[in-house]
Amino acid sequence: MDNDRKHTSKVVSKWLKDNKVKVLEWPSQSPDLNPIEDLWAELKKCVRARRPTNLTQLHQLCQDEWAKIHPTDCGKLVEG
User: Which residues form the Tc1-like transposase DDE domain (predicted)?
Assistant: First the structure.
């Protein structure tokens, strides 16, 4: 729950209340604490820089760039 409108709509709020779901307070526009988001952003940047021209090429470039990601890079994202 990050205070996005889809999470705070009346329908969602009612469902959460009716189903007794406890929701933690969360500041709006807080930084994402999920390191995979940073990894996806980096992958997207690298693939975009190579300018794929079709779906097949996009798929191959994604695989190529993903293979270049070293486990220590992932560890740095988790630690950061």
Answer: 1-58
Residue 26's closest CA among 45, 50, 7? 7
Burial class (CB in 10 A: 0-12, 13-18, 19+), 12: middle
Kindly tell me if the per-residue pLDDT of 46 is higher than 90.
yes
If you write DSSP's letter for every residue of 30-73 in order, what string do you get?
PPP--HHHHHHHHHHHHHHHT---SHHHHHHHHHHHHHT--HHH
Count Cβ atoms below 10 Å from residue 1 Cβ, excluding itself: 12
pLDDT category at 74 given cuts 50, 70, 90 is confident
Element (H, E) at 79: helix 71-79
Q: How far apart are CA 38 and CA 56, in angstroms?
A: 24
